[in-house]
Design brief:
Radius of gyration: 23 Å
Strand content: 5-15%
CATH superfamily: Cytochrome P450
Strand order of the largest sheet: 6-7-13-10-8
Distance between the termini: 31 Å
CATH topology: Cytochrome p450
Shape: globular
Number of helices: 18
CATH architecture: Orthogonal Bundle
Helix content: 40-55%
Length: 486
């Protein structure tokens, strides 16, 4: 049965959060909505009874629904909420989210995105903007650090993702991918996202920890998979102390404790390993870097960084590959062009396919920056404490940047390509995803081996709507495709 929320076209979410646009304000495409009613602007600059100023600055208008409802909908269905709100209010617009009444201003125009990404890291704090992830990833996660602490951790982590290191990981990724694909059915209908999660989890465990006790990894695989499978209600509830004692939050807490214990044991074993200098896994690289640096990472910091790599490093790639398989199944000409290029040992068009998939189906729909002092973005000044959010969904669907933005067209990424403020699946600026190059390499390896082995055919129309898991968007029915042997 088709889910009720069309991620781009339905206004059901907009209706649910009671979004209405003031008279004279146009939507994201510069046109008024049919049948929308202008809302009254009350005394003191209120909009529909709600103040839209903060510390002397007027914030853009936005939904009036209760904060909890806005938070749940924005996290559960951002691919519907953000376009719907943009149509009602134009961009930028303001959401009122949890925790602590966070005001989130969504932006998407390249000039606005540039102002955010080029802003000083001391002013634009991403860690505070990502606070929802703290119970999952830990206080020392790279995604939650700011200022000098973030710069120090990134300096220590960066060598593990250098060009030479990624080239070295490629052979391991190829080996694990071949092993995993040999276990897939030779033909028939599959839920590709489920199989791909198993594949990419194996890749990240092997890349992060190297060759360790297989029995221990066997025990950890289902626990890690379940822990990162947290939905929006669980993610929000983890930050509320009393709920952590109740199911399903209590199970998530126990899983995270088990993972932390495992990570602590792996760190201690690496520190004692006489062959540490010869190991090429990420854990070994980080332990060596910490030992040789006066500002090296403590065990607690290492644990949280490893948790981030494991949690974010496999699910995001699996989801991107699942969307790729759906689009290739729906577009046989694109699929056959990829096959021909692979046969000639090329990669340019395959790279364009991956980039177009990440444009049309960004795995993470937005990034957050909390202002530590007033800042001007797109000619408008926002007060301290406001969270500014470059909306990846809106930026990637802009018809000004991408003609016919709803079409799947890898040719957009051949020749002159969009700028980093127009294509931003990995974020941007000083906070751009440190594993972006690794993710693109892994995606190419997986698609290459998939298309050498299988012809992909769609199930039904081949379309699936995005569904939220923690802060990522995966295919609603787990990417159902038919596999046919080549």
């Amino acid at each position: 049965m088709r889910p009720r929320l069309n991620p781009i076209d339905d206004d059901e979410v907009a209706i649910a959060v009671n979004v209405r646009r003031p008279a004279g304000v146009t939507g994201v495409h510069g046109r008024a909505d049919r049948g929308s009613e202008p809302a009254a602007v009350g005394p003191g600059g209120s909009y529909g009874g709600r103040m839209i100023s903060d510390a002397g600055h007027r914030l853009p208008p936005g939904p009036r629904a209760p904060r909890l409802l806005q938070a749940v909908l924005a996290l559960a269905a951002p691919a519907a909420v953000f376009p719907a709100a943009a149509r009602r209010y134009g961009v930028p617009f303001t959401l009122d989210l949890m925790p602590r009444g966070r005001k989130v201003v969504a932006v998407s125009e390249p000039a606005q995105v540039k102002d955010v990404f080029a802003g000083s890291p001391s002013v634009f704090h991403a860690g505070k903007g990502n606070d929802l992830l703290r119970p999952l990833l830990g206080d020392h996660s790279l995604l939650l650090q700011d200022g000098d602490e973030h710069a120090r951790a990134r300096r220590l982590l960066a060598p593990a993702f250098g060009r030479r290191e990624i080239a070295g990981y490629r052979e391991l990724v190829e080996e694990v991918t071949a092993e995993q694909l040999s276990r897939w059915p030779r033909s028939g209908r599959v839920r590709a996202h489920v199989l791909l999660n198993q594949l990419t989890l194996e890749v990240i465990l092997r890349v992060v920890f190297g060759v360790t006790d297989s029995a221990r990894l066997d025990r950890m695989r289902p626990i890690v998979a379940r822990a990162v499978d947290a939905g929006p209600i669980v993610m929000i509830g983890l930050g509320i102390g009393p709920l952590r004692r109740l199911w399903p939050w209590s199970r998530e807490v126990r899983d995270l404790e088990t993972i932390h214990e495992f990570l602590g044991e792996e760190i201690e074993a690496a520190r004692r390993d006489p062959a540490l200098e010869k190991r090429r896994d990420l854990l070994a690289l980080l332990v060596r870097a910490s030992a040789s640096d006066a500002q090296g990472l403590s065990d607690a910091e290492l644990r949280d960084q490893l948790m981030t790599l494991v949690a974010a490093g496999h699910e995001t790639t699996a989801t991107a590959m699942a969307w790729s398989m759906l689009e290739l199944a729906r577009h046989p000409r694109v699929q056959e062009r990829c096959v021909a290029e692979i046969a000639g040992d090329g990669s340019e068009y395959l790279d364009a396919v991956l980039k177009e998939v990440l444009r049309l189906h960004p795995v993470v729909p937005m990034v957050m920056r909390e202002l530590q002092e007033p800042a001007t973005i797109g000619g408008r000044t926002y007060p301290r404490g406001v969270t500014v959010s470059p909306s990846i969904v809106l930026a990637h669907r802009s018809p000004g940047t991408y003609p016919s933005p709803g079409d799947f067209d890898p040719g957009r990424f051949l020749g002159e390509v969009p700028t980093p403020t127009e294509w931003l699946p990995f974020g941007g600026g000083a906070r751009r995803c440190i594993g972006a190059s690794f993710a693109m390499m892994e995606g190419e390896v997986i698609l290459r081996q998939l298309l050498e082995r299988y012809r992909l055919e769609p199930v039904g129309g081949g379309r699936e709507w995005p569904r939220s898991r923690n802060v990522t968007l995966y295919p609603w029915r787990r990417a159902r495709v038919d596999l046919r042997p080549r």
